[in-house]
From TrEMBL:
<dbReference type="Pfam" id="PF01370">
    <property type="entry name" value="Epimerase"/>
</dbReference>
<dbReference type="GO" id="GO:0008743">
    <property type="term" value="F:L-threonine 3-dehydrogenase activity"/>
</dbReference>
<dbReference type="InterPro" id="IPR036291">
    <property type="entry name" value="NAD(P)-bd_dom_sf"/>
</dbReference>
<dbReference type="InterPro" id="IPR001509">
    <property type="entry name" value="Epimerase_deHydtase"/>
</dbReference>
<dbReference type="InterPro" id="IPR051225">
    <property type="entry name" value="NAD(P)_epim/dehydratase"/>
</dbReference>
<dbReference type="GO" id="GO:0006567">
    <property type="term" value="P:L-threonine catabolic process"/>
</dbReference>
<comment type="similarity">
    <text>Belongs to the NAD(P)-dependent epimerase/dehydratase family.</text>
</comment>
<feature type="domain" description="NAD-dependent epimerase/dehydratase">
    <location>
        <begin position="5"/>
        <end position="232"/>
    </location>
</feature>
<protein>
    <submittedName>
        <fullName>NAD-dependent epimerase/dehydratase family protein</fullName>
    </submittedName>
</protein>
Amino acid sequence: MKERILMIGSNGQIGSELATALRRRFGTENVITSDIREPTVLKEDEIFEIINVLDKPALTDLFEKYKPTQLYLLAAMLSATGEKYPQKAWDLNINGLLNVLDLAVELDVKKVFWPSSIAVFGPHSPKQNTDQYCVMDPVSIYGVTKLAGERLCEYYHHKYKLDIRSVRFPGIISWKTAPGGGTTDYAVDIFIEALKYGRYTCFLSANTALPMLYMEDAVRGTMELMDAPVEQISIRSSYNLAGLSFTPSEIGKEIKKILPNFEMSYVDDDPRQAIADTWPASIDDAYARRDWGWKPKFDLESITEDMIANLKTNV
Ligand code: AKB
């Protein structure tokens, strides 16, 4: 069957790189990207539409116009911005998802991808090797929407047989498009400022370990999950997905190996620390490994080398 992909929220950190990979795989003419505003770069043959995922009539028109076989919903408000606008975060993250789930069922979309996050865990979840199934008591509104979203995905799968697939992304590190409004954003900011100014003031404390993933792994993992035979998908809420875990102090030391003059300092009153303190330090992704063969490739050393090599020419 010929695939036709519709991506909503394609201008963000994950969308911009996932769209490139999907265009390479399915052909530029079969990938429609969309967002609330124009992307900064759009090649002549790329198809892009302005859409607000909360505008159901416009969204319906978009689905009817392109009749997608696969849908990627990446429009979301992340954890730090969500704390500033909790109502908007709920509206976008939950009502946007509901609009897409309803239309996917109504218009018979074959597969849907929606990312969840490690933010679904909370202060009573285990900190180390956090299991797929454990206490989940998110305290950020972002985490609350992601956990509610997971339950909706599983519900739509059971009730309407919707083939929805999801992973709980950790912090994503990438050099092409910066993240925005997240608690894990420091792990990208640090490279940009190290190259620009030779120093970085981190908003998380030196020993705050968090799970992270390199973009190349995140894109490959998403495509592997979407490619997996349906009978191999045992989880319809969202799969735990691990790459690596490190602290600000550890990544700082790794950067110093390549940029010996790099200096790091810390602020101790940033509200993002309170969110990070409730998140896991490391994730157990045994189900993703077992069900669809997930295996990350990048470690801290290879990420640091790749980030600096690529950003050197851009910063
Ligand atoms: C955030 O920090 O909010 C995101 C996430 C872990 O989902 N990067």
